[in-house]
Amino acid sequence: MAIVCERFDDLGRDSGAEVRLGIMGGTFDPVHIGHLACAEQARVAYGLDAVVFIPAGTPVFKRGKKVSAASVRLEMCRLATASNPYFDVSSIEIDRGGDTYTVDTLRQLREHYPDNVQFYFITGADAMLSIVKWRESAAIADLAHLIAVTRPGYVMTDEAKSELADHANFDVSYLETTALSVSSSMLREWVAAGKSIRYLTSLAVHDYIAAQGLYASA
Ligand code: ATP
Ligand code: MG
Asked: Closest Cα to atom 6, ligand 1: which residue?
């Protein structure tokens, strides 16, 4: 069977006990403390056994925008997650090529892992609102529980919550995380403007961005 991630590829195989795998999808251009803190807080809040970061190959919503090479985004995720024994990185979306659809990723993971592994798809409240418009959202609802984390500037109204509930049979949990007002776009702009992004991502990622000269122009 093909390998889907490095540390947790055999998750759930040693016993039939329920195991929870968090899935953190994104462009991660670059990964930052908002992503890391929300994955970690979701892990503890929902008793997740592992959280795997899966950088998108060609993000559908970012078509036409300049996105760093997949290998670079993957490497930054590796660097950022290495020190957390519960975190892992997967290149399945990058390896698959073509446009990235979450439903394809979840299906691929479902084929890989035994049935006792439950999926928890972690996403920011902003992305959650667009999930109902994603390809095959009903299939997504069947494959994974959703954890919507709060993100500064994106307040999830009751109206939005009920719209989500109407669209498909989503099992959504809402998690209030510490509001970290950081985004990848902000980090890219700051680097281009010569500002320091130290402490806004992991030190290893900070050093990698500097060494590679990434985001030097916006
Ligand atoms: P960009 O600014 O380029 O859109 P981003 O910071 O939104 O980048 P993405 O890779 O698009 O990063 O996000 C991946 C996931 O992480 C999304 O579900 C997004 O909602 C969530 N996320 C991003 N930043 C934060 C944050 N500061 N707090 C909580 N969730 C976040
Ligand atoms: Mg975004």
From this structure: 183
